[in-house]
Write a structure and sequence with these properties.
Chain lengths: 486, 486
């Protein structure tokens, strides 16, 4: 796939000057359209062997386009903060909003390429990581974040000549880096590694474009033309929907009648709070993190349960994220963006009062999201959770369930309380009427997103106290089991 | 100032239950008003000796208020990322928007208090740091970020009894931390240190409130009442304006006729790019950072100059921030917020294409900001720049100046270019008409914000090439001078 680029094609100067004006005008016009419609983000991956002008391309794109709406995102080795999260975190964190263009230098391909160059990449690992990347890119694309992957390339001879020419002049010698010279010495190994990675990560929705780079005019014109197309091509079609499946109703099967005495509660609550508190102070927790997700019926006691957990923790160690409708900035990013940014790093505890599951609950029931969009969320959410668990997170998900009768009682009690009536909104009554739809969505979600590494715990909460003790015990035991003695 | 708290006053249980309902109702009502008006941010500093229930207070405030609009911001020792910026950076970074309440645990007082406890805080350092903190808090308050400082306190006897009681029961013993026990052992030293810091940092606009904390009811009621007041008190009055002063017109005095030959330019540009490139690769640069600010007339060549600088740098090392009107999120924070978040950490280079000086240029001339607000900006900006310079930043500010005649020529050339005409907006023509006002604002700014540690360089740009070489030479020489040989 690199053969054509290695013929080092050039664009005659007069031809370049003929097309330059039109291309720049078109690009700018379309960039402003992108900004106005704000229906997509464009990510350009600027990859390729070293010493072929990737930095100059970035500079030139910033000149040809309006740089105020371009984000140049250059990633080097991960910082300590970045290492406390999964590798993809830094890309999520930096993702530009819709209407903007991101130029990514040092993308998610960099670690893979480096290992491939040094012949440390087994075929099975390459296949596995290519699969992860494909799912990540497909998800971005489904969320209208278009991924355009450029591989800048030239022949060994041209790369060598370019370095030598620059080294000969003291005013340009500083442009030649260690990495450029490594390419001169190990061109074949690097080329071979690159071909393996590019072939394994071809993706019809996000293909690699190989850009011949020996001639700067050819390089920028080829880049600009592909960017122009990305700016106007129709958005990729939505995947088709699978046939609906019946899902068992776990929530009706639950035993809501169990209770605990007040005396037992007052003994057990501090006991499990103590166990939790001691568990997260173990030295081995520094390499793990704890992610608690709370979903469930209105008035099932999420807030009160979360406060009992927080009470056992040092305020410097945990963060509670209350989740409601996304704000404008969040809405101009993929729905998982705000959660990626808020999952806690190693050594910390994140408590989600509602969560990313809103996608397949409220957004589904209230028809805020199309069926093809929430349908793919089951898989996307499992991928997302898997990345954090693989990085050391202990992820526990709680569904707090309440009977309709008990919920009504609590709504009435709230109405009567001067400071709780604020918490009862017309939406709560409306959601109550939509209970069958919510229950069906919850049942499907509980079944399709229950995994061994990120299990759902369904808790009956008609007895609030029993529910609190049960949640605390579940968390403490899970931590003790997974942290070991350390 | 701690004597009353050390009498450990208590609120009788029946009195508490009488006031609780009304207080919670009032707080919630006013929190929703705050959210609706969104005219201020409330920052509650939760400070005090250890083991007096600060964590419980935070928990309780999250219960009494709507936690979706409360940000619990708990700071521990600085992370490596935080240490790459000045100490205040992490508070800026986390500042909640208007309409929201921030609970700060581990505030900017923590390092000072720790040193005071251990008798490592000289009177002169305390006076100096108190002054810095006062200016910081005054600036926040002028930007409608109200700072309410709570000191939770109880007698030695009560603190000791509380610890012993908890230690006696295995279910509560885990609540007693090392820090709590240190207070028991060193109560007098800690008390003495706290009094020194509190007295030195009293501020009429942000006074310390000492909250007796031996009785939990007393503690939460006192906290809630002060918070209620902060939610409704009128915003602090704006400072009065100093009498206007004449400022010399540096821009007319500039020599705009100097030129450079094309041959000289083509020799000198790569020479200074090389010097710059080598300077930022010196090992000693890892402890410094480079901040470049570009302001100036329209069409004076800021973009072209910045691209020549970027061309000398590794794309992973620099970041260009193009500054235009703030977005909604930025507008709901103090004007310096977006800049604090974007100044580069140690080892990096930040290039500002327009900057925080918009406050005293466009915002002043276009009357987007009241005179008392832009007037105080001269001092605030110097404080801001000083903090970064004191932390190792090399900060250079460039004003690119052009004659009216040359500007008109460039405007006409832009009109004719198919891809440059986009850059010429009706605003550019309007700004040209406002040139006398802009020039007066610029002259005052250049005089009042030129400091030894963050100097202005005023550059004539009628000859674009000469201007580029001059800017590059200035940067390279400044770096070489300050980095030394290392």
């Amino acid at each position: 796939m690199l053969e054509y680029a290695e013929t080092d094609p050039a664009l005659p100067g007069n031809h370049f000057h003929r097309v330059e004006d039109q291309l720049r005008t078109e690009l700018l016009l379309r960039q402003y359209e992108l900004l106005r419609h704000a229906d997509r983000t464009i990510l350009l991956l600027i990859a390729g062997i070293d010493g072929v002008g990737k930095g100059s391309t970035i500079n030139q794109l910033n000149e040809w386009l309006d740089p105020r709406h371009i984000h140049t995102l250059a990633f080097d080795r991960p910082t300590p903060e970045e290492r406390r999260r999964p590798p993809m975190w830094r890309y999520w964190n930096a993702l530009p909003p819709k209407g903007h263009i991101g130029l990514i230098f040092g993308s998610w391909y960099s670690p893979l390429l480096l290992d491939a160059y040094q012949d440390r990449l087994s075929a099975s690992r390459l296949a596995r990581e290519a699969q992860t990347i494909r799912r990540f890119e497909d998800m971005l694309i489904a969320e209208n974040v278009l991924v355009v992957k450029f591989w800048y390339h030239m022949s060994r001879h041209a790369q060598q000549a370019r370095c030598q020419q620059m080294l000969a002049d003291p005013d340009t010698a500083w442009r030649v880096s260690e990495a450029d010279l490594r390419v001169v010495r190990h061109y074949d190994d690097i080329r071979h590694g690159a071909v393996r990675v590019l072939q394994a990560t071809q993706n019809a929705n996000a293909p690699w474009h190989v850009i011949p780079s020996a001639d700067p005019h050819h390089r920028i014109v080829a880049t600009a033309r592909l960017l122009r197309d990305a700016l106007v091509n129709p958005l990729p079609p939505k995947p088709s929907l699978p046939a609906p499946q019946p899902h068992p109703d776990q929530l009706s099967a639950l035993d809501y009648r169990q209770t605990i005495t007040k005396a037992d509660y007052e003994a057990q609550l501090p006991h499990w709070q103590g166990r939790l508190s001691r568990a997260v102070r173990r030295p081995s927790f520094a390499k793990r993190s704890l992610v608690l997700v709370f979903e469930g019926d209105d008035a099932a006691g999420k807030g009160g349960t979360i406060r009992r957990i927080a009470h056992a923790l040092d305020v410097r160690q945990y963060h509670i994220m209350p989740v409601s409708a996304p704000n404008d900035v969040e809405r101009s990013h993929p729905y998982l963006w705000r959660f990626w940014r808020n999952v806690p790093p190693r050594g910390r505890i994140g408590i989600f009062d509602r969560s990313w599951y809103g996608r397949v609950l409220i957004e589904r029931v209230e028809q805020l999201t199309s069926p093809s969009d929430w349908e793919r969320a089951y898989t996307e959410i499992k991928d997302f959770e898997h990345e954090w668990v693989a990085h050391g997170a202990i992820l526990l998900k709680f569904w707090l369930a309440i009977t309709q009768r008990e919920q009504l009682k609590r709504f009435h009690a709230r109405e009567k309380s001067p400071f709780k009536s604020f918490k009862l909104t017309p939406d709560d009554w409306r959601n109550r009427e939509l209970n069958p739809q919510y229950r069906a969505a919850a049942s499907e979600m509980l079944e399709r997103t229950h995994t061994e590494s990120a299990p759902w715990h369904v808790i009956a909460t008609d007895d609030k106290r029993l529910a609190r003790v049960t949640v605390l015990r579940t968390i403490a035991e899970a931590l003790e089991g997974r942290l070991g003695e350390g």
